[in-house]
Design a protein that fits this description.
With about 300 residues, the chain is mainly β. The protein has no helices and 25 strands.
């Protein structure tokens, strides 16, 4: 399922959600919004086996749930001009949204259960953050990772009453302008990031319960990355999709048997990637979605 601001609809940028039915991409319902949106994020809700989307629309954070036929608004979540919106579903099938509140320049998380309730204090992140995303652990608690105060990567977990740091603040040490978070089968976080200490190439660290361990060497991609997405397969092997190959083509690597290896050809197709997301099938095989600058 893909949520996107569609430049082919009027007005430009209306939110559209598409699903792959096995043979073709089909639109779910009509377009979700009447106006243009930014920072859309989609999550799958097992309670009705349909998608939930969160987005910024006209400087306001909004969300909608699909019921199989139509999109139903969940109303607006508080905050000013939300950016880096990340949608999720907890273990009670309640929608979650993590975002940067532009008025605070810090992160907030809200949960929907008939209305929006904030988890913890407003702006719980230690410092301003510029890039991040959220996942939900096996106990239903959200975990977030982000670039912290224009510096390194930081990770925090909700414990039911407060937000706690996972390891040290700025655990990446070097500046990490771009961060992607995933969970391994034990619900330990794995964070990939653009590593300014390694010339902007990708690095990755994995939480072992007490410390952050490097996954392979720092700066393991073939070149600087401008977009990246991290997942962990059912066997516990981390994968990273990025543009970290010559020509900024899409490439996927897997950490297997102690080293990073290409999954398939280094450059999957001849394209110039601007943005990229990756999901895994139940088998652990990846699916990548990317915006190709060579195709308008």
């Amino acid at each position: 399922v893909v949520a996107l601001a569609d430049s082919n609809t009027a007005p430009v940028g209306r939110l559209t959600v598409l699903a792959w039915n096995g043979t073709a991409w089909v639109t779910l319902g009509t377009t979700v919004t009447a106006t243009g949106v930014q920072n859309a994020s989609v999550a799958w809700n097992p309670s009705n086996n349909q998608p939930f989307v969160a987005f910024s629309e006209g400087g306001v954070g909004n969300a909608s749930q699909f019921d199989g036929t139509t999109w139903n608004s969940l109303g607006s979540f508080p905050g000013s001009s939300p950016t880096y919106v990340s949608a999720g579903i907890d273990n009670q099938w309640k929608p979650l949204v993590f975002y940067r509140d532009t008025s605070l320049l810090k992160g907030r998380v809200y949960r929907f259960a008939g209305g929006w309730t904030e988890l913890g204090t407003s702006g719980f992140t230690p410092a301003d953050f510029d890039y991040g995303n959220m996942v939900v652990d096996g106990a239903g608690n959200p975990i977030v990772a982000f670039q912290d105060g224009g510096s390194g990567a930081t990770c925090q977990q909700w414990n039911g009453s407060t937000w706690n740091l996972i390891g040290a603040q700025n655990f990446s040490v070097s500046i990490a302008p771009m961060v992607s978070l995933a969970l391994d089968p034990a619900s330990f976080p794995v964070v990939g990031y653009q590593d300014n200490g390694a010339s902007g190439f990708a690095s990755m660290k994995r939480w072992n319960g007490s410390t952050w361990d490097p996954v392979g060497g720092n700066g393991f991609t073939a070149q600087t990355v401008n977009t990246l997405s991290v997942k962990v397969n059912p066997s516990g092997e981390p994968l990273i999709a990025s543009d970290g190959i010559a020509g900024n083509s899409p490439t996927v690597m897997i950490f297997r048997s102690g080293s990073w290896q290409y999954l398939g050809p280094p450059a999957i197709i001849p394209a110039s990637v601007l943005e990229m997301k990756m999901v895994l099938q139940a088998s652990g095989d990846p699916i990548i979605l990317f915006r190709d600058s060579s195709v308008s």
